[in-house]
Amino acid sequence: MKEIVLDKSYLDAATPEQILALHGKHRLLMPDVLFYELITTNEASMRNCFNKFPETSNPVSLIPNVGTLLRYELTTRKPCTPLYDQRERAAFCFNSELRTGAFEFTEAQSEERTNQEAIIKQKAEEFFKLAMMVATFFPQINGIPYADLPAQISGAKKTVAIDITAVRAIYAKLAEAEEGLNSVSSDTLNPNWALFRWIQVRCLYSLDLIFRYYGCLPSNPTTRFWTKIEHDMLDSEYVILASLSGAFACNENRMIEFFRLICPNGVLFMCRKE
Residue 5: which H helix or E strand, with range? Predict the structure, then answer.
């Protein structure tokens, strides 16, 4: 029985029968980021997605966001895996009105959703800021002609994917600047730790952003620019969690690419629409 992290791209494409089959054979994990995407999408998409889940108690296992897992590891000084152990233990069912489009958010729920959207926007800015810092960890990509950048970026990605020592070294450098990271020694980290996977995946997305924007914020960043950064940040959450569980239900190409890069023995479930 596998722990499968479920991504919205897979949920959009799958049939109810396919979701039921995964639910019956495996542990289907709904990360906090997926629930956020479902409650902030348009009504038609929300209704379509919730109609895919079996009408049973605990149709999925709810797991927390990456930030919560990082805090768990920094507090307990032990890895958060297996992710299933981090699930919400209470029995629950999704509100049936989510399937019909009749569901209406209460005033308090709407306010909380608005607050979450604001938090996500702030985190997107922090995500980009950290991405631009990542260049300092890879001196080979600094000050070179743009034409030479793709090969160096590709090499840096491979280093992050396979070199445990390199990932630990990056963590150690971050810990020098972030006091809270000092509670866990870099020498103890391995792929079973969310802290380790967080470094890997953030570096992969950051290297892509460095190539896309040549290491600096556009002079006049648009709403469209920040929307793209937000999508990258949310996608990175899925990849971190999937690399920890070792199984991923996803249709999005770049997420699949990064998952395969850092988790070559992982299991991938894809579902293409006819």
Answer: strand 3-6
Rounded Cα distance between 119 and 115, Å, is 6
Number of helices (H), then strands (E), belonging to the chain: the values are: 12, 5
Tokens of 141: 């990509």
CA-based nearest residue to 9, from 42, 32, 38, 39: 38
Q: Are 249 and 6 in contact (CB under 8 A)?
A: yes
The residue ranges of DSSP E strands in 108-266, in sequence order, are 247-249
Q: Is 216 exposed, middle or buried (0-12, 13-18, 19+ CB in 10 A)?
A: exposed
Q: What is the rounded CA–CA span in Å between residue 28 and residue 49?
A: 15
Question: Which of helix, strand or coil describes residue 29?
Answer: strand
4: closest CA among 210, 125, 14, 172? Answer: 14
Q: Per-residue pLDDT tens for 104-162?
A: 888 888 888 888 888 888 888 888 888 888 888 998 888 888 888 889 999 999 999 99
Cα-Cα-Cα-Cα dihedral sign, residues 202, 204, 207, 211: negative
**N-terminal to C-terminal alpha carbon distance within the chain:** 28
Would you kindly state where each structural domain of the chain is located, as residue ranges? 3-91+103-269
Say which residue the tokens 């300092």 belong to. 136
Give the separation between CA 66 and CA 58, rounded to whole angstroms: 21
